[in-house]
Amino acid sequence: MVTSTSYGRRLAAPETAGAATATCPCPQPREVPAFAGSGRLQWNVPPAPAPTESAPVSEIPLSREQAEVFAAIESTRQNVFVTGRAGTGKSTLLNHLSWHTSKQIVIAAPTGVAALNVGGQTIHSLFRLPIGVIADHVIDQSDQVRKLLNTIDTLVIDEVSMVNADLMDAIDRSLRQARQRPHDTFGGVQIVLFGDPYQLAPVPGDSDERAYFADTYRSMWFFDARVWQQAELRIFELTEIHRQHDADFKHMLNAVRHGQVTAEIGGALNAAGARPAPSEGVITLATRNDAVNRINAAALQRLSGRPLTAKAEITGDFGGRTFPADEVLELKVGAQVMFLRNDSNHQDGGQRWVNGSIGTVTKVDSTVYVDIDGDTHEVEPTVWEKFKYSYNPLTKKLKKDVVAEFTQFPLRLAWAVTIHKSQGATYERAIVDLGSRVFSPGQTYVALSRLTSLEGLYLARPLRPSDIIVDENVQRFMQGERAALTTEEIPRT
């Protein structure tokens, strides 16, 4: 079942999209040949192969409700917000859209890592916007930017919950200005937003920025932007959870998500989490970076032998030091590691691991060998590509160029990881360590919802009512949506 509602002005009848002219596929990880080295892992990266226009062999098929949302995006020009609980397949749908759309599509995200993960570009880089509050300041646009923005059919924004209201309005103003359509929201571009406000929030700035938002907007959230009230927007909430299969655990997670944890639910979670954790093969999800670093460093130190170091190869300009994996990765035989990318290059098309799989290093040679549940797999370096969109005046189409590459093993030491970095990962077993207190809305929900079952949950300390924090603005927005919600049954076959 998928639920949808229209927001803002009443939607006109669906308009059939025009014929497509270009596709911007979302690239998959590219494996590179083995490297040689003694003690220090090193490699040389060959020139990147020509981009492929075909979808990966191991692409996950869409569920019925995901297919319905894809059809709504593809066959109309309606603006769409796709949301849903953790594990409902928002990322799967976005990836399918990037490969299979017939429209000229641009994918953007609020952070560099989020943009890398979806094969897109950061919002600030795409629109050439300054960092910080933009307010009503003049937005300067070069001819190149204007031509690019005039070529877009559909703008996709992932992790939209991290986009603040000021930035959302700046996107709207930029598109109206570049396309010379001052009276059309987003300049007439179809907007497709992905994200779950219950999981990630916009990051507050300094005291002056917080004061500006308090005086100008109802809240910092994207849904309180001025353009949100003007846009004809259809909201789809995916409801089919693919990560968990136990109905009781799904019910508990939903209660945590909405801040409706009863004494019975809290007791059940604490009872399950009180079991002694296994000594191996379990990851700790912690609230703070210092706790994670301390746990990983101590565990690595306890292993015998000297560590081997893999230093990432970086080409091009990443625009900072935020990378999708560790720039310097230290490994020992016996180290517990987590995979940072889905395996999409296995010869038979199957997946040997997924983002979040936990394994143990068994051998470090020209490549790394990792044991996952009794099966040993050879792991080679992976290339993450940073993209930039540009306008091709000859073809009058969008062009997607690789402007930087980051090559590293898709592994991270995984005795512990921050809850924030666990976003999007799936774990069979995990220790949830909330420390002295939870300091961010949705933090407990993100941690618990990484698990596939209640049987895999271990708590470093019992859950407290104060650990269940839901942003009141998110509650207001989502409850308002559900009050106007119409449920649409997907046809059964």
User: What's the mean pLDDT score?
Assistant: 85
The general outline is globular
Task: Classify the helix fraction into a percent range.
Answer: 25-40%
Total domain units: 2
Output the radius of gyration.
Answer: 23 Å
How much strand? 15-25%
Q: How would you classify the helix and strand content by structural class?
A: alpha/beta
**CATH fold category name of the largest domain:** Rossmann fold
CATH architect. name of the largest domain: 3-Layer(aba) Sandwich
Name of the top-level CATH class of the largest domain: Alpha Beta
Unreliably modeled segments: 6-54, 486-493
Distance between the amino and carboxyl termini? 13 Å
Tell me about the biggest sheet?
A: 8 strands, mixed
Count of extended strands: 24
Tally of separate helices: 13
Q: Give, in spatial order, the strands making up the sheet with the most strands.
A: 6-5-7-8-4-9-1-24
Per CATH, the superfamily of the largest domain is: P-loop containing nucleotide triphosphate hydrolases
Provide an overview of this structure.
With 493 residues, the protein is an alpha/beta fold. 26% of the residues lie in helices and 23% in strands. It is built from 13 helices and 24 strands. An 8-stranded mixed β-sheet has the order 6-5-7-8-4-9-1-24. A 5-stranded antiparallel β-sheet has the order 17-16-15-14-20, with no helix packed on it. Strands 2-18-19-12 form a 4-stranded antiparallel β-sheet. Residues 6-54 and 486-493 have low confidence and may be disordered.
